[in-house]
Structures are given as structure tokens and as C-alpha cells.
Amino acid sequence: MNTQPIGVSPALSPEPAQERHTLSVLVDNEPGVLARVIGLFSGRGYNIDSLTVSETEHARGLSRITIVTTGTPMVIDQIKNQLARLVPVHRVADLTADKRDAIERELALVKVEGRGESRVEALRLAQAFDARTVDATLESFVFEITGATTDIERFVALMATVGLVEVSRTGIAAISRGKDAT
């Protein structure tokens, strides 16, 4: 039975909007857990935009996996439900949907080459973005910058105009505000 409203062609129906979500997944810190989580995404054709993993509670043997992904609301719900069913997963929190006003940060190392005026401009831009110089030679710099993803992207785009060589990014680390754990 066709549930499409009269006069509306299925081809003209609007697609649900893609949304970016940051998921915080608390898991046992044991071999194979990350592979199982990643397998869930790859096996269903979901994309991971950013992935950060680290042990967070050594005494309890727990790690936090922070995943940034994009999908329709239905796909995001599917991802959360499937993650929650994995055996080593203790908790799945959607820092975007929960409206917890999460804090997200990323770290990047940015290598820039330059001599003369481009060298001076690279230093000016780094200072404007509060980037630290972690290595310097007569021909290049390596800057360390921490901040929101949009700030990192703006910094990298500006450095491209003065001699960007290479960028290494950590992915997003996120945590909710307030006293409750995510």
C-alpha cells in the first residue's frame, strides 16, 4: 500500500537531513573492542568523521571512544542502539542529541615552510590563533594548536596561503558540561 500523500511523487519527497553527532562510548579496555566497534560502522556502511580512543579509568579498566559521525536521525538512532548492544560497551551517550552543551576540542600539529615575509606571516597567524611553536628550523615551523574543529580548519586554511607542508590531527575529544558523567 502506498503511504505517499496524493499528488506527491516519491522522487520529490525530501530526504531527511544529515546531522553530525558526537558519541561518547565507554567500553572495557581489552583487545578487540575497538575492532568490534569499527566493524559495526564498516559492516553497515556508516562513516566515521573522527575517532579518538584512550583509557580513561585505569583502575576500572575502561576506555572512552569518541566518535563523530553523520547520518539521518534514524541512522544515528540505529548506530546508538547497535553500539549499546555490543558486550564490552558500558554506556553510549550522544553528546549532540542530549543537548548537554558538550565541550569539543581537537589538537593539530601543523608544519609550515617559509623564508622571509612568509615566515613572518606564519608566526603572526600562529600568534593570532594562540598556536604554540613546538619546532623551528631556518626553513620551517611546526605549530601545535588546540581548539574547536572549525578553528583548526580556519588555521590550516590560512597556513595554506603561507606555505603549509603537512597536518596531523588527533580527532575530537569531547565531554559534557556539568557534574554528570557521559
TrEMBL record:
UniProt cross-references to InterPro entries, sorted A to Z: Acetalactate_synth_ssu, Acetolactate_synth/TF_NikR_C, Acetolactate_synth_ssu_C, ACT-like_dom_sf, ACT_dom, AHAS_ACT, AHAS_small-like_ACT
Record GO biological process: isoleucine biosynthetic process; L-valine biosynthetic process
Reaction it catalyzes: 2 pyruvate + H(+) = (2S)-2-acetolactate + CO2
GO CC annotation terms, alphabetical: cytosol
Keywords attached to this entry: Amino-acid biosynthesis, Branched-chain amino acid biosynthesis, Transferase
Documented EC number(s): 2.2.1.6
Domain of life: Bacteria
GO MF entry, a single one: acetolactate synthase activity
Domain (ACT): residue spans on this chain: 22-97
Functional pathway: Amino-acid biosynthesis; L-isoleucine biosynthesis; L-isoleucine from 2-oxobutanoate: step 1/4; Amino-acid biosynthesis; L-valine biosynthesis; L-valine from pyruvate: step 1/4
Family membership noted in the UniProt record: Belongs to the acetolactate synthase small subunit family.
Subunit annotation: Dimer of large and small chains.
Protein's job: Catalyzes the conversion of 2 pyruvate molecules into acetolactate in the first common step of the biosynthetic pathway of the branched-amino acids such as leucine, isoleucine, and valine.
Protein name: Acetolactate synthase small subunit
Species whose genome carries this gene: Acuticoccus mangrovi
Underlying gene: ilvN
